[in-house]
């Protein structure tokens, strides 16, 4: 019988991680590599070369791909480049995201469109392309989408972000329903308040920072590494009977 530790290992697996240049994506990409997976690291506006170098330092192959996910053609470019280099995609982590803040009455159509393209439309495109390859290969695979606490809550002055992350949670469930029979597990992680560039404005706001910390039972902001273990688990055989789940990693925020 295969041990749990063996099930967690990702040896001979290939992963594509979007938004892997910094923050959550970089931590997830490195963790997958430490578990044994080869990793294609995507950077949107910043090169993921530093992340690739860190992966290579643990003795695992890494590949750098770039592209603006607000453009519809980028998803196909990323998948094709990864397949050309590695020959397969076993794990897809849709981590890339953006946020634009403004009161709803002042929210521009440009900001709305950009956020929805990056956070939701590109996620569907990448899932569709990688999922098709996983089905045709007969090997199945793992798809991990990065959702948010705003998949459940409305937030303040981030209407497009909340709408997009709500969509990510529902898309995750919809794809899981269709693809579980192909041994493709589609799940999501909903990070809580993490110290990343997306939350710089909240961290700098003394009142909001205090209010956030007061609600988190763990008493601190999350770090990218706090999400990495969940990503490895959902990318591994240890999660083979988990389908359409949104795993909250929030220091206890949602249970407060």
Written account of the structure:
The chain is of the alpha/beta class. It has a single domain, classed as Rossmann fold. It is built from 9 helices and 7 strands. It has a 7-stranded parallel beta sheet, sandwiched between helices. α4 packs parallel to α5 and α5 runs parallel beside α6. The longest helix has 29 residues. It is globular. The chain starts with a helix and ends in a 7-residue tail after the last strand.
Features:
256 residues, alpha/beta, Rossmann fold, 7-stranded parallel beta sheet, 9 helices
Strand-helix topology:
Blueprint: H1 4-8, E1 14-17, H2 23-34, E2 38-43, H3 49-56, E3 62-66, H4 74-86, E4 91-94, H5 109-137, E5 141-146, H6 159-179, E6 184-191, H7 200-204, H8 206-215, H9 224-234, E7 246-249
Parallel strand pairs: 1-2, 1-4, 2-3, 4-5, 5-6, 6-7
Helix pairs in contact: 2-3, 2-9, 4-5, 5-6
Main β sheet profile: 7 strands, parallel
Terminal Cα separation, in Å? 39 Å
Query: What is the tally of helical segments?
Result: 9
CATH superfamily: NAD(P)-binding Rossmann-like Domain
Q: Level of helix content?
A: 40-55%
Point out poorly predicted stretches: none
**Could you say what the CATH topology is called?**
Rossmann fold
Number of domains: 1
């Amino acid at each position: 019988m295969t041990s749990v530790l063996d099930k967690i290992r990702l040896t001979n697996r290939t992963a594509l991680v979007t938004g892997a240049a910094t923050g959550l994506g970089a931590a997830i990409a490195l963790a997958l590599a430490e578990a044994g997976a080869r990793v294609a690291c995507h950077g949107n506006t910043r090169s993921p070369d530093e992340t690739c170098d860190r992966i290579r330092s643990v003795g695992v192959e890494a590949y750098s791909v770039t592209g603006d996910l607000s453009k519809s053609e980028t998803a196909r470019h990323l998948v094709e480049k990864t397949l050309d280099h590695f020959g397969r995609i076993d794990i897809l982590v849709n981590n890339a995201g953006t946020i634009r803040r403004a009161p709803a009455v002042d929210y521009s159509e440009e900001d709305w469109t950009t956020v929805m393209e990056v956070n939701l439309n590109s996620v569907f495109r990448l899932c569709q392309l990688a999922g098709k390859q996983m089905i045709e290969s007969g090997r199945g695979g793992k798809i991990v989408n990065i959702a948010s606490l705003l998949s459940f809550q409305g937030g303040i002055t981030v209407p497009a972000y909340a709408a997009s992350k709500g969509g990510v949670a529902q898309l995750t469930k919809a794809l899981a329903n269709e693809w579980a029979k192909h041994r493709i597990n589609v799940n999501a992680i909903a990070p809580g308040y993490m110290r990343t560039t997306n939350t710089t404005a909240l961290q700098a706001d003394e009142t909001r920072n205090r209010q956030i910390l007061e609600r988190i039972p763990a008493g601190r902001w999350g770090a990218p590494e706090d999400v990495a273990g969940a990503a490895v688990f959902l990318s591994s055989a240890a999660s083979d009977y988990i389908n359409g789940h949104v795993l909250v990693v929030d220091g206890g925020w949602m249970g407060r």
